């Protein structure tokens, strides 16, 4: 993971951009991974660990009706967490994790259901939907393994977004050559 975090810090430093993190199931592990990289202070604004559902609304601006209707483990919640932390901490990029690490299901979602999200500057990421990008994960393993893989996945998602930003259409062409996936 440190390699991915190192690449992220390097890319953000080169572009002069900043990052903020919103975490739920990872409980600060994403921020710890990023801040383990020397020089991270040039790009890392901070993080919000909103473990309790009501904090996702109060601190990150996640829609209260959405939380009431869908619960905290939801792709829209992840997207709003990423956008909310980006705005709250004044960063160019926001990333977020929400999900179920176990041992019990939550909000009708089985253990291993995770959503990771990235929100970036408008128009900066060529293949992102407006407002960011969310990935749904179905993970197996222990609580620690699910949390670790969630960290790896959200950092990889941001790295892909940053690399896509820097390489423009090269990724789209690569996707076409590889059958569209």
Task: Please describe what this structure looks like.
- This protein has helices spanning 2-15, 29-35, 53-60, 64-70, 75-88, 143-167, 170-177; strands at 19-23, 44-49, 93-99, 113-119, 133-138.
- Helix content is 46%, strand content 17%.
- Helix 1 runs parallel beside helix 6.
- It has one domain (2-177): Alpha-Beta Complex (Maf protein).
- 41% of the residues are buried.
Distance between the termini: 24 Å
DSSP strand count = 5
Give the CA-based shape: globular
Helix content: 40-55%
How many helices does DSSP assign? Answer: 7
Class based on secondary structure composition and strand pairing: alpha/beta
Radius of gyration: 16 Å
- Kindly report the name of the CATH homologous superfamily: CinA-like
Instruction: Give the averaged pLDDT, no decimals.
Output: 88
**CATH topology group:** Maf protein
Named CATH architecture: Alpha-Beta Complex
């Amino acid at each position: 993971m440190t390699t991915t975090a190192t690449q992220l810090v390097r890319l953000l430093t080169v572009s002069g951009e900043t990052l903020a993190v919103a975490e739920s199931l990872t409980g600060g592990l994403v921020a710890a991974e990023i801040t383990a990289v020397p020089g991270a202070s040039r790009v890392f604004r901070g993080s919000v660990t909103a473990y309790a559902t009501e904090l996702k609304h109060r601190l990150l601006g996640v829609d209260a009706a959405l939380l009431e209707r869908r619960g905290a483990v939801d792709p829209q919640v992840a997207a709003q967490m990423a956008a909310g932390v980006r705005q709250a901490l004044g960063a160019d990029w926001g990333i977020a994790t929400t999900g179920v690490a176990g041992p019990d299901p939550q909000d009708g979602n089985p253990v291993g259901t995770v959503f990771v999200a990235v929100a970036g500057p408008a128009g900066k990421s060529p293949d992102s939907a407006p407002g960011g990008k969310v990935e749904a994960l179905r993970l197996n393993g222990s609580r620690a393994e699910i949390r670790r893989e969630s960290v790896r996945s959200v950092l990889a998602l941001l790295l892909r977004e940053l690399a896509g930003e820097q390489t423009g259409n090269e990724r789209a062409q690569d996707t076409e050559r590889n059958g569209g996936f």
